[in-house]
Design goal:
alpha+beta, flat, four-stranded mixed sheet, 1 helix
C-alpha cells in the first residue's frame, strides 16, 4: 500500500486490521521534481510502501535482500 506521511499510521493499522502480518515500511524517494511546499517546509519528496503478508513471507529466489528504499524520480511534466 502506498501512503504519504499524513496517512502512514492509519495505513499501518489498516494492514494489521486486514489480518495481514505487518512486515515493514519502504521509502520511495520521488526526487527533487516532486511538489515543493511553501518556503520553510520540507519538500514532499518521499512516500512510503506499507507491506505485509498473509502467513509466512515467501523466501526470495535471489541472492540478497530487496532494496530498503526505491529511487524513482517524478518529473513535473509527468503530473
Amino acid at each position: 500500500m502506498f501512503s504519504d506521511w499524513r496517512q502512514l499510521p492509519t495505513a499501518s493499522d489498516a494492514v494489521q486490521m486486514g489480518n495481514l502480518i505487518w512486515r515493514g515500511i519502504v521509502a520511495w524517494n520521488k526526487g527533487n521534481g516532486s511538489r515543493a511546499p511553501h518556503k520553510g517546509y520540507f519538500r514532499h519528496q518521499c512516500e512510503y510502501i506499507v507491506w505485509g503478508t498473509k502467513g509466512k513471507c515467501p523466501r526470495a529466489q535471489h541472492a540478497g535482500p530487496y532494496p530498503g528504499c526505491f529511487d524513482f524520480p517524478v518529473k513535473q511534466s509527468d503530473l
